[in-house]
Specification:
GO terms for molecular function: hydrolase activity. This is Alpha/beta hydrolase. Keywords: Hydrolase. InterPro entries: AB_hydrolase_1 (IPR000073), AB_hydrolase_fold (IPR029058), AB_hydrolase_sf (IPR050266), Epox_hydrolase-like (IPR000639). It holds the Pfam family Abhydrolase_6. This protein is α/β, with parallel strands linked by helices. The protein has one domain: Rossmann fold (3-Layer(aba) Sandwich). The protein is 36% helix and 10% strand. The chain has 9 helices and 4 strands. It has a 4-stranded parallel beta sheet with strand order 1-2-3-4, with helices on both faces. Helix 2 crosses helix 3. The radius of gyration is 17 Å and the shape is globular. It starts with 5 loop residues before the first helix and ends in an 8-residue tail after the last helix.
């Protein structure tokens, strides 16, 4: 996810992939975690950096898993470099980057216990209130631990990337078909990227499974880990040569 690190990504996905016998590799994007901001602050430059890493470190197509902005980049890789990608696991994926273009749920958020956000910094209250569907102090603590894990990142680079004119990939709206196994998992109460745009994008994935989970928001891996594991194991079962646990 945007601003988050490989440590947070591992905490999100490793439990879901456990027992599959895969070699898991987690990357800090440029300007995130411990990776230097050594590319221009554009999504295309970030994507090209990831592809360059893949070109230098793999000799066969890989399974790509990502959440939010990471999933947005994963779909971009599948469009531009399909020979690198064996399958896609997309959790709360960004589909359209411009905030005012996203189709977000308009229902009120689910009820939450009094004081459920007390442990979070005040500056994060509005974000977590919009992002979380499973609204408990335990989930908040888990998300805060993920947000605070890993290297420091380069906040100036992240801000320039997110607010710059080239935050969107140039082929964001291209209906390029990817034929590999795809699983798209969304949160019913995700008021950051929503779930409707993701469903409409399924026409690009003829071997795609789409799931929207109730009582889940944008931090779905930390909100509903058991459901994430179940759906991930189904994705692996649909991938030839991968023995799911």
């Amino acid at each position: 996810m945007f601003t988050m690190t490989r440590t947070a990504t591992a905490a999100a996905f490793s439990p879901a992939l456990a027992g599959a016998g895969l070699r898991e590799t987690y990357l800090d994007l440029p300007g995130h975690g411990d990776s230097p901001a050594d590319c221009p602050p554009t999504s295309l430059a970030v994507l090209d950096t990831v592809c360059e890493w893949l070109d230098h470190h793999i000799d066969a197509p890989v399974l790509l898993a990502g959440g939010s902005y990471g999933a947005y980049l994963a779909t971009g890789i599948a469009r531009r470099r399909p020979e690198l990608v064996r399958g896609l696991l997309l959790v709360c994926p960004g589909v359209t980057i411009a905030r005012d273009s996203r189709d977000l749920p308009d229902e009120p958020p689910l009820e939450a216990p009094t004081g459920w956000l007390d442990a979070a910094p005040a500056a994060l209250h509005a974000h977590l209130d919009a992002a979380l569907g499973h609204r408990t102090s335990t989930v908040v603590a888990t998300v805060l631990a993920a947000l605070n894990s890993g290297g420091p990142g380069d906040t100036t680079f992240q801000e320039r990337l997110q607010t710059g004119p080239d935050y969107a990939l140039p082929d964001e709206n291209a209906d390029v078909v990817f034929d590999g196994p795809v699983t798209v998992i969304t949160g019913r109460q995700d008021r950051i990227v929503g779930y409707a745009d993701q469903f409409r994008a399924m026409r690009r994935y003829p071997r795609g499974t789409f799931t929207v989970i109730d009582a889940a928001g944008h931090y779905l891996p930390y909100e509903q880990p058991a459901l994430l594991r179940s759906l991930t194991q189904d994705w692996l079962r649909r991938t030839p040569g991968i023995p799911a646990a």
